Amino acid sequence: MKTILILIFSLFLTSLIEAKEITKLQTPKKTTLISLIDWDGNELLSERGELDNDGIAKSSCKIILKWFDTAKSFILIKEGKDYYYQIDKIYKCNIKKDYAYFSLKKVELLKKPVEVKLKRDTLYSEDITQSNQLQDINLLIDEAIRNQKQKKYDKAIEYYKKVISLKPDHVEALISLGICYFSLSKYKESIDAYQKALLYSGDYKHEILSKIATSYFGIGNYEKAIESYRKALELSPNNPEIHFSLGLAFYVNGKKEEAFQQYVSLRRLDLRLAEELFDILYR
C-alpha cells in the first residue's frame, strides 16, 4: 500500500512542480515579423519568428542562409514601427531541425553589416554554432526546457549544469535541476540541488522546502519529509499543496490523526485536494 501511495504521490508532485518551474524559467518571447532587407531597402525574405526581451531572435535557418548569401542584408523587425538591426552573433543554426538563434544590434541607419566570423559552408552541418555556442544563459535554458519537456532528463541536466557553472546562484536552474533528478528517482541528488537553491532563494523558500520534503518522501525518510513540510508551512500556511503533501506524509508514517488535521485544514483551502486526501485516508 505504501509503495502505491509513494508512486501516486511522486507522479502527482512531479507533474505539478515540473510544469510550474518550466513556466518560471521561460524567457518572455513575442512573435514578430522578421524581414531580411538589402542595402537598397528591398525585401529579400520575410517570415514569422520570435524575439525575447534580451534581443535574442529565433527564426528558421532560411534567414541565416540568405543573410550569408547577401552581404548587404539587414534584419528588419516589424512591431508597430520599423526598426533595422544588424546580426550581431549567431548562436545556433540547426539545419536538420530548421531553427536558428541569433542576437541583434539595433541601428538607426543602414550601415554595412558587421562581419560574423563563420563560413557559409559550415552551416550545412547538423548543428553548428560560433565558438561561444549557447553560452548565453537564456539559450541554455531554452535547450534545457526543450529536453525536459521531452522527458530527456539526462540531457536537460547537462544544460542546467552549464547554466549553473555560468551563474551559480541561478535559483530557477537549481530548482529545475532538482526536478530532473527527482524525475529520474535520483532523490539524494535532487535534495542536494534544492539545498543549494535554498542558499540563494528569496521568495521561493517554501517551495524549495516542499520539494526537499518530496525528495525525502521518495527515499522513504518520512520524518525528514514531515520536518521539511512543516518548515514550508511556516512560510506559507495557506498553501493547499503543502497541506496535502504533509497529510500524506503523516499517513504513510502511521500518524493518521495528524493526517486528518491536514484534511481539516485543506477543506477551507481546496475542497478537491481535501477530498483526494480523505479518500486516501479512509478508502
Topology:
Blueprint: H1 2-25, E1 29-37, E2 43-52, E3 56-59, H2 61-69, E4 74-79, E5 81-94, E6 99-107, H3 137-149, H4 153-166, H5 171-183, H6 187-200, H7 205-218, H8 222-235, H9 240-252, H10 256-267, H11 271-282
Antiparallel strand pairs: 1-2, 1-4, 2-3, 3-6, 4-5, 5-6
Helix pairs in contact: 1-5, 1-7, 3-4, 4-5, 5-6, 5-7, 6-7, 7-8, 8-9, 9-10, 9-11, 10-11
Low-confidence residue ranges: 113-135
Strand neighbour order, sheet with most strands: 1-2-3-6-5-4
Structural class label:
alpha+beta
The major pleated sheet works out as: 6 strands, antiparallel, barrel
Using the alpha-carbon principal axes, give the shape.
elongated
Question: Can you characterise this structure?
Answer:
This protein has 11 helices and 6 strands. It has helices at residues 2-25, 61-69, 137-149, 153-166, 171-183, 187-200, 205-218, 222-235, 240-252, 256-267, 271-282, and strands at residues 29-37, 43-52, 56-59, 74-79, 81-94, 99-107. It starts with a helix and ends with a helix. Strand 4 and strand 5 (81-94) form a beta hairpin. The radius of gyration is 24 Å and the shape is elongated. The longest helix is centred in the N-terminal third of the chain and has 24 residues, at 2-25. It is an alpha+beta fold. It folds into 2 domains: 2-27 and 137-282, Tetratricopeptide repeat domain (Serine Threonine Protein Phosphatase 5, Tetratricopeptide repeat, Alpha Horseshoe), CATH 1.25.40; 29-124, Trypsin-like serine proteases (Thrombin, subunit H), CATH 2.40.10.
